Amino acid sequence: QVQLVESGGGLVQAGGSLRLSCAASGRIFSTYFGAWFRQAPGKEREFVAAIRWSYGSTYYADSAKGRFSISRDNAKNTVYLQMNSLKPEDTAVYYCGAGMSGSYYYRDRAYDYWGQGTQVTVSS
Tell me: the pLDDT tens digits for 33-56? Predict the structure, then answer.
């Protein structure tokens, strides 16, 4: 069993930055992916970024490329999402997921474990 706890959300002006953290407890297998998804009001949850826990390979949604960066600290069992040049359309609840998603890293159903979410609000 894996527990995930997100932190780092908040209110920021457009153009600003935030860093989200996702602390994992429990057994993290080397084959796991860690990922960030987000869900805005009235919309489906969408993929933002993923990282392969062992190798550190990273994957991004088009909306995140060039602005967001996902990383992990294996010693702390923590995945981070550095978000720069934030836009009002980035406003959403951001969720951290973990699991053996493999090539389906962009699908939320591929993840077995989820955090409670952290709100990110970007004002214009």
Answer: 999 999 999 999 999 999 998 889
